[in-house]
Amino acid sequence: MRRSPAAGQTCGMSARFRALVVGAKLYLLALLGLAGGAGVLAAFVPGFGLGAVFLLPPPILWSRRITGLVRDRTARLTGIVIGEPYKPAPPPPVPQPDGWYRRDRQLYRTARWPSIHDRLDWLLGDNATWRDLTWMLTAPVSGGLIAIMPLLLMVAGVVLPWFGYLWALALVPVGFFIAPAAVRHAAHLYRRMLGGPFFRADPATTQADRHPIREWTGDALQPVVKLGLLFLLCLLGVPVAAATILGLLLGYGLGLFFFVPWVLEDLRFLADWRRSLARWSGQGIASPYRPLPLLAPNSEGMFQVGRNLYKTRRWATFAVRSDWLLKDPATWREVLWRLVDPLVGGLLAGVPVVLVGYGIWGLVLPRIVHMVFGASENDWYGAIAGVTWPAIPVGLLFAWAGIKLAPWALRVHGRWTRVLLQPSPGTVLAQRVEQLTQTRADATAASASELRRIERDLHDGVQSRLVAVGMGLAAMERLLDTDPPAARELLAKTRESAAAALRELREVVRGIHPPVLAERGLGDAVRAMALDSPLSTTVTVDLPRRLPDPIEAAAYFAVAEALGNAARHGRATKVSIELRLDGQVLRIAVTDNGQGGADPDRGSGLRGLAQRLGIFDGIVTISSPPGGPTELIMEIPCASSSPRTSTS
Amino acid sequence: MRVVLAEDLYLLREGLIQLLRSYGFEIAAAVETGPDLLEALLEHRPDVAVVDVRLPPTNTDEGLRAAIEARRRIPGLPVLVLSQHVEQLYARELLADGSGGVGYLLKDRVLNAEQFIDAVRRVATGGTAMDPDIIAKILSSRPAGGPVDQLSPREREVLAMMAEGRSNTAISQRLFISEGAVGKHTASIFGKLGLQPSDDDNRRVLAVLAFLNTGRA
Fold first, then answer.
1. B62 or A604: which leads in pLDDT
2. Cβ contact B89–A524 (<8 Å)
3. Which one of A438, A559, B128, B174 is most buried, by most CB atoms within 10 A?
4. Do A516 and B54 lie within an 8 Å CB cutoff?
5. Omega of the bond prior to B57 within 30 degrees of 0, cis?
6. Does A518 contact B60 at a Cβ distance shorter than 8 Å?
7. Which chain A residue's Cα is nearest to B136?
């Protein structure tokens, strides 16, 4: 399925010719991508640079049509199918009962802004967007170059002999023979970039990925690539810093105060981005901002903010928001970060990246090109301080130093990010209080509805069955003397009623606390559940001790829910469940081979799961690319006696 | 027949004693806790033990563990385990040694005295008695591709009844087919599950075990 005749191994002459043509077409697609990427980048300038973020979605959506075309054509040309990696679009905002639209803790009069924000989150928060953009900007010199290489070699082999380089004739058969392999590799690179997580091992090619050279380059280059991205973000920080200074000047200098909250809040995206990327050097950083206070009218219908009363919600909202922004120290630490980071962060990330980039592209490659094609000897590229012979050793030394420096630089970069962007202890406490309030509300609501369900089950089932048993016995008492055969018949029915009551009671008990959980603990209870599941399920348990009762029960029902979801929505046939105690954290991984595409923002089941585990400070993460596999990871801290202070 | 009985609830224990006595069983010992049970089993070596899964002191699966431990020390000791709920997991553990003489029933089944006593007798003579609920669970959770999938629907029905512990005669009456036909089905089942011709009783236990292990690692 993955190899078309053009890319197959049993290549005849015509197949190789065809591969040459396909390579050229793939390169045309790459050029099309570059044109699109340049357009998107141009459209980003006003969007990111001026903070007019609402201008961003159209060019991104437009670029998806280009990459869609590339996917389609690549599949047709090479037979290598590239799936659509995008997250599904968010549903339109729904107004609250009072007609206002609420997004996070902000109220809007119309659906316009919440919808724009939703779309922004959707597009900018999707890694596929950035992979698409990277592909578009680099395809002509990465995958595209690989695809066109055979043709280039053959052209060079035909042209160069006219200029006296007779050896170049050898390039013609070389280009001709590597054509199918080049097309195959180019298409695979396209698929990695346009079709799914780049670094994730593709299940179909996992074996190939274990190749030691590939593994080494992956390990060595990954920190450099990450630093490269961080470097780009630091560069992006320059216009953001400029916009911040401009906004503050306009606000405090000219009295155009409405600019202030605008630059303070709407330009936070960069810091948020950096916080989430801090996981590359340890843990991600939690949001440090205090929660925005909720606004409610008082008895006279006025809104009170500090000592001021406002008649309309609009101005009150503005006041609350300004107050909230200006009084939060995290805001000012972040502003300081915006001003300093382009320099500090930029240097930290830039040095290794420039070392590797300059070493390879500035010294080694040009030198090789010069040696092969004999271009001018004293070119700036491919020479160091005017001398050419050390270019290759020094260039390799630079690249080696950059690669060695990269992991260290990545760690220091993360530490630097933490200095100003990490929440302060006070904020952590405030957030913790808010989270506890929320989870306590969830817990009480959950237990109330659970009690209500149990009450209903007992009332409708067991209770009425027992009434029937009692009535049957009373009737039997009467019939015993007058009509023994009828009494005997009634006896059988009554026994059946008692059996049914037992059956229903067993179901109720199972719903409250599964007996096998009480008898054997979490590991065997999950094993028993797996045995009863119609899916082919493997269970791995590594739990050295029994866990606190409430956590065992919560974990059991969470696994039950995950297993049910895999069967219901994921159309899975195989599931693996892993239970492990990592220090003080219970880690549960449920992986299935279903169709994937589960979205925690959509499914109420997943949200309910997160809510129920949230009571125990548990975290649910899900990875479910379209096409699968779906991996659901639940982590529950088990040191019940020591309360956590981190909200991450 | 001598019986050792382990049940911690007084009413149920007395009820079971009466029931068993009225069908001619002799109660060698009636105990309340897991440790007592193991002691009584090793001391009296009864013809059959009737055991509740959940017993003091831990009120978890004491009874089950005592029964398995006793069977490890006295191979083939017939044990009928009673519980408020049935789990495939426990059934597999009970049958794991493959030597038969095992029963695993819901306590509800006591309501039907004749069938219950029938099950006790079957277990005492080295047969098996699996609860119909267990059979239903296995049938509903059977993943595709296992050896049991190669059986015809009729053969699966026969195997399910064998698991419950029914004899060929009982199966033929239930399914309204001749006893010879049941014999053919069982021979075919043994063949498909790859069981060598040997002692028929043991093969029946192994077939049930294969049924429990359908397609699972």
1. B62
2. yes
3. B128
4. no
5. yes
6. yes
7. A532
Please give the average per-residue pLDDT across A72-80, as a whole number: 86
CB B94 within 8 A of CB B102: yes
Q: What is the mean pLDDT of residues A61-71?
A: 89
Buried b / exposed e over A5-26, threshold 16 CB at 10 Å, is ebbeeebeeebbebbbebbebb
Q: Does A520 sit within 8 Å of B60, measured CB to CB? A: yes
Which of chain B's residues have a Cβ under 8 Å away from the Cβ of A573?
143-144
What is the reported pLDDT for A589? 93
Q: Is the peptide bond before A140 cis (omega within 30 degrees of 0)?
A: no
pLDDT of B133 reads 86
Tell me what ipTM this predicted complex has: 0.82
Closest Cβ–Cβ partner in B85, B88, B215 for A536: B215
pLDDT-based confidence at residue A142 (cuts at 50, 70, 90): confident
What pLDDT, in 10s, does the model give residues B132-149? 888 888 777 765 556 667
In a 13 Å sphere around the CA of B87, the CA atoms on its Cβ side amount to 24
Instruction: Out of B108, B137, B144, name the one closest to residue A502 (CB).
Output: B108
Phi, psi of A585 (to 5 degrees): -120, 125
Residues of chain A in contact with residue B90, where contact means CB-CB under 8 angstroms, are 516, 528
Average pLDDT estimate for B49-55: 93
Of the candidates A410, A430, A420, the residue with the CA atom closest to the CA atom of residue A285: A420
Flag if A531 and B141 touch (Cβ within 8 Å).
yes
pLDDT digits (tens, 9 = 90+) for A454-488: 999 888 888 888 998 999 999 998 898 888 899 98
Using an 8 Å Cβ cutoff, are A555 and A547 in contact?
Answer: yes
The pLDDT of residue A209 is above 80 = no
Contact A519 B140 (CB under 8 A): no
With bands split at pLDDT 50, 70 and 90, how would you rate the model's confidence at A539?
Answer: very high
Q: Which residue in B58, B82, B87 has the most chain A C-beta atoms within 10 A of its own C-beta, making it the best mutation to test that interface?
A: B87
Q: Do A495 and B111 touch (CB under 8 A)?
A: yes
Asked if B89 lies within 8 A of A498 by C-beta distance, the reply is: no
Compare all CA atoms of chain A with the CA of B133 and give the residue at the minimum distance: A503
| pLDDT at residue number A461 | 84
Q: Are B108 and A503 an interchain contact pair (Cβ–Cβ within 8 Å)?
A: yes
Sheet holding B102-106, edge to edge: B26-31, B2-6, B48-52, B79-83, B102-106, B128-130
DSSP H or E run through B66: helix B62-73
pLDDT at A199 over 80: no
Contact indicator for A645, A588 with CB cutoff of 8 Å: no
Q: What is the crossing angle of helices B88-95 and A522-532, to 10°?
A: 100
Residue A610 C-alpha, separation from nearest chain B C-alpha, in angstroms: 28
Lowest-pLDDT choice from A280-294, A524-538, B166-180: A280-294
Cα B43 to Cα A36, A44, B21, B39, B85, distances in angstroms: 86, 86, 21, 6, 29
B126's tokens: 């080295």
**Range of lowest pLDDT (A267-281, A386-400, B134-148):** B134-148
On whether any CB of chain A is under 8 Å from the CB of B154, the answer is no
B200 vs B203: CA distance, rounded Å = 5
Q: Using one digit for the tens of pLDDT, what is the confidence trace for A429-449? A: 888 888 888 888 888 988 898
Q: Distance between CA A357 and CA B25 in Å, rounded?
A: 89
